[in-house]
Amino acid sequence: MVVLLNCEEIQLEALRILVAQGLDDLLQATRPLCWRLLFGTLGLYKPSWPAQLQDSLLTYDTYVQALFSKQTLPTPVVDHPLSRKQDSKWHQRFQDSSLWDRIEKDSLRTSWISSKSLPNPRQFPVSSGVLQQESVMTKMTRVLYVWSKRHPGTGYVQGMNEVLGVISQVFLNGPVDSLESDCYAVLEKVLAVFGPLFCLEVME
Fold first, then answer.
1. Integer distance in angstroms from the first to the last C-alpha of the chain?
2. Closest by Cα among 19, 31, 33 to 124
3. In this structure, what DSSP letter does residue 131 have?
4. What's the pLDDT at 124?
5. Which of 33, 145, 148, 185 could form a disulfide with 156 if both were Cys (CB 3.0 to 4.6 A apart)?
6. Positions of the chain with pLDDT under 50
7. In this predicted model, what pLDDT tens digit does every residue of 108-127 receive, in sequence order?
8. Distances in whole angstroms, Cα of residue 189 to Cα of each of 30, 53, 66, 101
C-alpha cells in the first residue's frame, strides 16, 4: 500500500484490490487518502494533489460564506416578518433556521455521536488531538445544511446524517482544517448516486 501511494500516478485498480483486503492498524492513517482516490475527489496524478486539495477547501469555503455571510433584512414595511410568501427574505430566514435545527437534532442522534464517544481510537486514530463531540456535530450539521441548500430538489432527509456519520469517521484521521471540505466532497459523490433513494423514502 505504501509503495502504491508513493507512486507518481496511482493505479486505481490496484488500490481497489488492496483496500478490499482491509487496512491494518499501521495503515489506518492512509484511509482518508484512499477514500479521496476511490471516490474521485482527488486525481490519480500525485503532483496535482496539493492544488486539488486547496481548490476543494476554497470551493467549500465559498459555499459556506455564501450561505452564512450576514445579509441585511428588508424593513417590515417592504417585507413583513410574518410573511409566508416564498420570495420573502424573512420567510426564507425562518425556513433556513428551521432546517438547521432539524439537521442539528439528527446530527446529535447520529449513531457514534449519540453513544457519547468518538470512534474507537484504535480503529479511527484522530490527528491533531481529539475533536470534541460538540465540534464534530457542528461540522456535520454545517456540511448537511450546505448540501441541502445546494440541492433543493432533494433537500435534507433524515438518514443522511448517518451516511455523513460514516464519512466523518474516516476523515477524522485526516487534517482537522479540511475535515468539512473532505466530508462534503465525498458526500456529494455518495448522494449523487443514492440521493434519489431518499426522495423515494419521502414520497412513500
1. 44
2. 31
3. P
4. 43
5. 148
6. 77, 116-131, 203
7. 888 665 554 444 444 444 44
8. 20, 16, 21, 25
pLDDT at residue number 44: 95
Where is 33: in which H helix or E strand?
helix 31-39
C-alpha cell recorded at residue 157: 432527509
Among 156, 162, 183, 175, which Cα is nearest to 114's?
A: 162
- Does the predicted model carry a pTM greater than 0.90? no
If you write DSSP's letter for every residue of 40-98 in order, what string do you get? Answer: TSS-SBGGGHHHHHHHHHHHHHHHHHHHHS--PPPPTTTS-TT---TT-HHHHHHHHHH
Residue at 93: amino acid letter = R
Beta carbons of 137 and 169 less than 8 angstroms apart: no
Nearest to 30, CA basis, from 124, 139, 167: 124
What pLDDT score does 22 carry? 83
